[in-house]
Amino acid sequence: MRGHPGRLTVASLATAALLSGCAGLQGGGSDAALRVSTTTAVLADLVSRVGGDRVDVTSIVPRDGDPHSYEPSPGDAAGVTRADVVFGNGLLLEEPGIMKMVHSNAGRSVPKIELGERLEEYGGTVIELQEDLGLDVLWLGWAVEGEVAGAGSQVRTTATKLEGPGELRVYLTDTLGRPQVYVDSSDGFTGADSFTLPPEAHTHVNWAFSEPGTYRLTVEGRTETLDGHREEIGSGTFTFTVGDDAEAPAGTEVLDAGHADVALDAETGKVYVRADDESGETRRIAADDVVLAVPDRARETVPEEEPYAFLGTPGDELWVLPQAVIGKHVHGDLDPHTWEDVANAEAYVRRIEAELIRADPEGGAVYEKNAAAYLRTLRALDQEVAGTLATVPAENRELVTTHDAFGYLAKAYGMKVVGFVVPVPNQEPSAAEVEELGDTIRDKRVPSVFLEPNLAARADVLRRVAEDQGVGVCTLYGDSFDDKIHDYVSMMRHNARELAECLGGRNR
């Protein structure tokens, strides 16, 4: 937590208000010396503050879009083709297709800067991503470890064989509740049962088994580069026991709860299970030495909605390890939402200034002047946010949200994220699950829970339970803006005031 802030001067606040009201997502256009493409609206806003009229800035992800799941359009690709500089966040914030599109369409000599990757060099800090939803079954994802040579390279993992009493479907539920199927054993494996991930990435998925018993799934991996090169890198077989009566082979370790990934090392070709132990340390267990358990408490039924017909007849039993977080959510070990600490936004601005000067030396004096003014604004904003959040009572400094985007805000300003809560994908929660969510909110004694505007559609359960518990429902901005909030300064000022008001502090 940053300490007690100093007094804000009238001039400081006036400067902040003036700068937050000018420059939008695009620069001056006709007088622009540089055409800049950014991956998100937050980055576009920061670049426009430094670039002013010398840059024409466009964002690939729309102002109210989700960078974790946005699928770029041909128009986005055309914009990147014209760019002189491209800024991304990095740290695997963006949906992999966005970065692949950037590397495929931007000129070879065009700088492609991922601002979060060297944040410490410019005075910022990066923290590890904390994920713990407290599921009572195994939270199993897919992961790729190890580096792959070549910008925009990816690793494709393909299911090639399944032995077992029933069928397996591996799928992801997007932010609109639509399933994207990666693996479906019911029609055989033809090479299409696969998905791609960038190196050092992880994604959440659902694993649905149609019958109890023991299953053995064989997968293989290969690297894919933008120039079309393909290289096989390894294969392995994983064992699942489905239902309480299925027995694990002797001498194997059974995983039935916690966070784990089916993982492939792109450098060594080894296939294993990557699991987090109780101390938070990561273990890598050879595929032959571990069994992934899907107990009877994971038993569900096939939803009635037509998009889920691939799972079977509505009402049929399924054993499901849920993805837990709705929407595409590919990420690495580090939390990419760095800008929620204003000090990190200052580091972004320093890096943006340096890169714009490198690309357009003649504009150096303009970029230096704009950056200096905006850094003064951000320093005043940092103090304002710290001062506002310092008014929240100590017993109310816990956050329950719909998305794991506020770790930096919590760390910087003395808060604690106690949970990001979303409904289990593809189905309405059971009465017991709704009751458990209510118990969690009641036990934490939080005065309010927090939704993000661009994710509110998938937080109906959290909203409903909060209202049942007499708990407030408030709004925080994480990855994007909307029609009310158009810029970074306004976003962070809103977040601070909303947190203070909803958690019993003073709205300064």
TrEMBL record:
InterPro entries xrefs: ABC_LPXTG_lipo_actinobac, AdhesinB, Bact_metal-bind_prot9, Lipoprotein_PsaA-like, Surface-anchored_actinobac, ZnuA-like
GO biological process: cell adhesion; metal ion transport
GO CC annotations, alphabetized: cell envelope
Keywords: Metal-binding, Signal, Transport
The UniProt record lists the keyword RNA-binding: no
Cell location: Cell envelope
Protein name, per record: Anchored repeat ABC transporter, substrate-binding protein
Lineage: Bacteria, Bacillati, Actinomycetota, Actinomycetes, Kitasatosporales
